[in-house]
Amino acid sequence: MHEADREQYPNLFDVDQNYGLCHRLDRETSGTVLVGVTKKSRTQMRECFHRHYVRKLCAWNVQSKYQGFKTLGSLIQD
Length: 78
Known about the structure:
- The chain is of the alpha+beta class.
- It has a domain at 3-50.
- The chain contains two helices and two strands, in the order H-E-E-H.
- It has helices spanning 3-8, 39-50; strands spanning 20-24, 33-36.
- The two termini are 34 Å apart.
């Protein structure tokens, strides 16, 4: 990536003090983590979680190849 683009389009490969873990959405598994790519976004996201402005909604899609098991639907549209 060109040096001039790094300020406008930060990426997680650039280890810098501006990046930081905001929240681990699912601690019990190896689930999704929320990372701020700028100092401002990291601070704002962490504050939202701290003040409980964010609600976690869990959804899943399980498909079974075994007879006798049925799915209730799909979250992914074909």
